[in-house]
Amino acid sequence: MNSGFKAVITGGITLVIGFVLWRFTGDVETPVITLTKLGIILMVVGGLEVLYGLFKSVVGKSVT
Questions:
Q1: Helices within the chain (DSSP H only)
Q2: Which residue ranges traverse the bilayer (predicted)?
Q3: pTM of the entire structure?
């Protein structure tokens, strides 16, 4: 399993966790940061990681 595929999988998992936090924790209050904001941050990071993994997969195959 190449590193591009691993990045896509971990990014997808992070994106899903972020979506679940954003969608279903609106009424939970925490002292520092709300879980909905954390969910948005995780969705952005997960999406960027998926894009990086796809880029790495495409560039890695064309260079070889």
A1: 3-24, 35-63
A2: 7-25, 31-55
A3: 0.85
